[in-house]
Amino acid sequence: MAAPIFHLIPGGPRPVAPFSHAVEADGWVFVTGQMPNEGDDHAKALPAGIEAQTHQVMHNLKRVLEGVKLDFGHVLFARVYLTHFTADYAPMNAVYASYFPLERRPARTCIGVTALVLGARVEIDLLARRP
What does the domain layout of the chain look like in residue ranges? Predict the structure, then answer.
């Protein structure tokens, strides 16, 4: 096994805790769960509503993937965390699905949780693979 590569993407979303944006080993790229925050100011209000928050999370994930020279087509697995599971599941799915072609949707788990950092309603992490 090759030594892991710890990626902190220049210009990537500001981490909300002590972690790398992604860690890569033997072509597998583990992308840290992204929050719906914009820019470097964690005091800035998050986008309102689950649709806007999901779009921002996907935008942040895209920035990380691009930083390691990948895209959503390389994603094999996603994990979604929702704080308002019943209310937010369907609208989150509608936004999430728009980022993946029907024939290339990754495997996925969606989990209801009691809270997320920054008061977010959604967080998503990814597992991607280099070709």
Answer: 5-129
**Confidence at 11, pLDDT banded by 50, 70, 90:** confident
Sign of the four-CA dihedral 62, 66, 63, 68:
positive
Helix (H, G, I), strand (E, B) or coil at 125: strand
DSSP code, position 10: T
Residue 80 contacts residue 54 (beta carbons within 8 Å): no
Provide mean pLDDT across the span 17-32: 96
- pTM (global) more than 0.90: yes
The domain defined by 5-129 folds into: 60s Ribosomal Protein L30; Chain: A; (3.30.1330)
Residue 100 near residue 72 (C-beta atoms within 8 A) = yes
The tokens of 16 are what?
Answer: 């909300």
